[in-house]
Amino acid sequence: MNTIPTIFSLPGTLPPYTAVGGTARAASTGLSAVLLNRGGRYPRRTLFQELEKAGFDYILSIEGPQERYDLEDLSGRFPFVRFILLKEKISSGEAVNLAAAELGGPFFFVLWNDHRLFEGIAAAKMAELFGGKRLCTIPVVQNSRFETLHTLTVPVFYQGSVRALPEAPERENQRSLFPYDWLGFYDRERFIRLGGFDRDILHPHWQLMDFGFRASLWGEEIRSTRMIRLIHDGAMPPVDSTAENSYRLFYLKNLAPVFRMDHAHIPLRRFPGYLARAGWDLAGAWIEFTRERRWVRENRSRFRGDARGVTDLWEHGDGQNGGQDYPEGEAGK
């Protein structure tokens, strides 16, 4: 069985990039910061100083393929910052995968360049409180008016569809399906063992949904904490949950598998319904169906249940409900 099922087991699947700087370690907590860049003119020096003050070992700044003219100055001022210069545009999930592959410590904390730490606990305390406990711990996020955003996601099945209910965190340690906006404190070993984010799922919403469902199906947890708060200075990107090409992969990997006894598989009876909804020709649909069916078979013993069981975690576990919901397309029946 393939124990590391996606990008981390396949040489050459990481995107091409160049690493600059990061020759010195600022602390020894085991926790580094991963900075994703959404664009815009945000004060990088100020953010680097805040992260340095918080006591992160390294800062990994994922830079887009556009030219940067301040890197020499910044790398000299902040020798613990490693700039990852991408040769091409990649998805946010693939950027997190790259960071996990590049870093060597046991934990990393993902945030964006339009976020600020607000009365955040020190990196050493984060590592002490959340290290080794779960796959990912997500912080509270507030906007510039200090309003708490709906960063928790609850999955439900309703009339043959899988829906996501966004909620605001109300207490410590609440369960969430996926890390909101890729933010959070990650356990690197668990993340790599899970396979990271699927680089073939390009749609942001379905990439997050796939990661969250796979984590739950394979026995991992994603929970929130009120001990870490971020301020989001920018405008929130709209949530697009259109059931397009990326949804097909999400469906096959997460909704189509059936769990029996101690393993999962995709039965052949799923194919006619998949073909009817996929919008592919027969040959193309069969190739994709058999490829993902083989992936499920290779990882069959890692499943701890099926998609219906994932929703039961919330219905009979944490008891979270409410919030606004939106359709995610048809689930496997």
What does this protein structure show overall?
The chain is of the alpha/beta class. Helices cover 32% and strands 24% of the residues. It is built from ten helices and 14 strands. A nine-stranded mixed beta sheet has the order 1-4-3-2-5-10-7-11-6, with helices on both faces. It has a three-stranded antiparallel beta sheet with strand order 8-9-14. A two-stranded antiparallel sheet has the order 12-13. α2 (71-77) links the parallel β3 and β4 (81-86). α6 (204-217) runs parallel beside α7 (245-255) and α8 (270-278) crosses α9 (282-298). The relative contact order is 0.15.
Percent in helix: 25-40%
Cα-based radius of gyration, to the nearest Å: 20 Å
Annotated CATH topology of the largest domain = Spore Coat Polysaccharide Biosynthesis Protein SpsA, Chain A
Helix/strand/pairing category: alpha/beta
Report mean pLDDT, rounded to a whole number.
86
Pick out the low-confidence regions.
Answer: 1-5, 319-333
CATH class of the largest domain: Alpha Beta
Please state how the strands of the largest beta sheet are arranged side by side: 1-4-3-2-5-10-7-11-6
Number of helical elements: 10
Shape: globular
The profile of the biggest β sheet is: 9 strands, mixed
Please, what is the CATH homologous superfamily of the largest domain? Spore Coat Polysaccharide Biosynthesis Protein SpsA, Chain A
- Sequence of secondary-structure elements: EEHEHEHEEHEEEEHHEHEEHHHE
